[in-house]
Amino acid sequence: MYDWVERLESSNVITRTDSGVQIVDHEVRQQYAEMMAALYSRDTISQEDAYVIPHFAGMEFAYTEIDAAYVWTQGGYQIARSHDDYPVFIEIHDRDIERWIAFFQRFGVDTTIDERPDASDINGNIHYVLFPKSNAIDAEWVDGNPVIPLDDAVDQMMENRPAYEPALEIIADEYDRDIDASHHSTVGAN
Question: What is the three-class DSSP state of 66?
Fold first, then answer.
């Protein structure tokens, strides 16, 4: 382990958890978020950073929709996104809508609620689609990211099965799930 990580942990700045390292010092987290917001307001946000930024909001969330498939397949499945049109889908508490919008505005990033906008209506390549919930957010942690539970993610994918067939196949293999998923076409002889 790096010596500086141990020093930060002993100073109660960070803590190690099963899902990774977490900044527990509110002031440090706030200062880091402000620094990152200043940097990102001047430059394009990368796709990788799009998954880091929500962690600094200090509000509960979980990746959902396309991003539930992306997280559960550990980045092995992407659909309906491109380098210049990259929405990130997160479930949030409805009481936090205005706070989330203000948070992303600090980074110069557009947000929409419940619906993916047309790419021509968005400034920049990264944008967030917020899905407000009035009840509790049920999240599991995968590779340091909160995501809706696997069963819920599979249910979402089954609603648009043809688009998600490759992801369902990955999940069936990776998590030993009984999902009849095969995106390979078969040709039968008559």
Answer: helix
Per-residue pLDDT of the chain (190 residues; tens, 9 = 90+): 457 667 777 888 777 766 556 677 778 777 777 777 676 666 677 888 888 889 888 899 999 999 999 999 988 888 888 777 889 999 999 999 999 999 998 888 889 999 887 777 777 788 999 999 999 999 999 988 899 999 999 999 999 888 899 999 999 999 988 887 665 544 444 4
Q: Among residues 5, 172, 179, 140, which one has the least CA distance to residue 73?
A: 172
Asked if 177 and 171 touch (Cβ cutoff 8 Å), the reply is yes
Q: How far apart are CA 93 and CA 135, in angstroms?
A: 7
Residue 16 has, within 13 A of its CA and on its CB side, a CA count of 8
Q: What is the largest CA-CA distance in the chain?
A: 72
CB-facing half-sphere around the CA of 23: CA atoms within 13 A: 14
Kindly tell me the sign of the dihedral angle through the C-alpha atoms of 173, 179, 183, 186.
positive
Helix 150-159 and helix 161-174, axial crossing angle in degrees, nearest 10: 150
Residue 12: CB partners within 8 Å, gap ≥ 6? 24, 25
Answer for the pair 91, 133: CB distance below 8 angstroms, yes or no.
yes
